[in-house]
Amino acid sequence: MSAMLALAGCEVEEGAGGVEKAVASAEVTIPTPPVSSPTVSPEPTTSSHPSLGSLINEPAKEPIQPEVEAVPAFASVEESLIARYASVIPTKWGERVPGVKTRLHTKKDQVIALTFDACGGKEGSGYDEKLIQYLIQEQIPATLFINARWIAVNPSIFQALASNPLFEIENHGTEHRPLSMTGKLAYGIAGTKNVQEVIHEMKDNADQIEKLTGNRPLFFRSGTAFYDEVAVSVAHDLGFELAGYSVLGDAGATYNTEQVYNAISKASSGSIVLAHMNHPEKDTAEGVIKAIPQLRKLGFSFVQLASMELIGS
User: Which of 132, 245, 281, 289 is the S-S candidate for 274 at Cβ 3.0 to 4.6 Å?
Assistant: First the structure.
């Protein structure tokens, strides 16, 4: 399934729409797959997700009026996705739903991906400066999944992280919600309730990150890393890859130093480690600082997600 999409910037309340970013007006075409098999969607084949401007031949005679044209262009995409999936009932729920990538594809290289979530809101908008400064000092690349609410509280820190080539900035959602078609809960957090909310939980923060950094995130990780298979299909239609994990590094920043160390030091080649960078008051930094020298002694190096092909469990 391929999609020609208009994806533009806006903030939302409760996963609903907003005013979109500048794009050219155009006919947007999305081939419709069989509704009976929504869980299998084509994977993105490029290392970045293109903006609408790269997909549409823009008129040359007159200046484009982006704010006016963006809304109808994306509205047609949204309408098509809602029509396609509104009546499809999900049957799977969890962190290992097909289509969620949990490991790096590697045969020879001894590589591990360190990923750190910044959740925002009541899940925490702090900044673990000790952790980040250690990564910088040791020149350890990492992938940072940033939520819109965390960006709102930490705009200058976000810009500094985004400008550092050690860090790959990816999308941790607009409201940090599990990606559900029916409002399912994960760890007490209510999921999105329908197709429209699924779309905007991903799209709106991606728009914001693209506006702030000039780069559109390719990877999305939901709040709690839970999904149903219909939401996975919607994500793929929007051009996102879903990044899960294979090593639970700090259990939502609840592990103590020894638990973080024990979890991360047991990572194997191809592991994607999930930990958090939004709780400086917790022990994540200490555990990471203790585990990394051990992994280096074992011959492991560290990579960003975008530098590797990802596979399922």
Answer: 245
Size of the chain, expressed as the number of residues it contains: 313
Residue with structure tokens 């699924």? 198
Q: Measured between alpha carbons, how far is 4 from 29 in angstroms, rounded to an integer?
A: 6
Q: Sign of the CA dihedral 194, 195, 199, 200?
A: negative
**Which residue bears the tokens 């990816």?**
170
Dist. CA 240–CA 172, nearest whole Å: 12
Q: In the structure encoding, which two tokens stand for residue 271, read together? A: 């592991």
Q: Which residues contact 3 (CB under 8 A, 6 or more apart)?
A: 30, 31, 77, 237, 238, 239
Burial class (CB in 10 A: 0-12, 13-18, 19+), 47: exposed
pLDDT tens digits, 88-131:
999 999 999 999 999 999 988 999 999 999 999 999 999 999 99
Buried residues in 4-26 as b, exposed as e (16+ CB within 10 A): bbbbbbbebeebebbebbbbbbb
* CA triple 151-157-158, angle to 5 deg: 45
**Which tokens is 256 given?**
């103590």
Question: How far is it, in rounded angstroms, from Cα 154 to Cα 159?
Answer: 9
pLDDT in tens, 221-246: 999 999 999 999 999 999 999 999 99
Name the CA radius of gyration of the chain, rounded. Answer: 19
- CA dist 219 to 56, 196, 211, 285, Å? 23, 19, 16, 24
| SS3 per-residue string spanning 175-208 | CCCCECCCCCEECCEECCCCHHHHHHHHHHHHHH
β-bridge pairing 301-302 and 111-118: parallel
In this prediction the pTM is 0.78
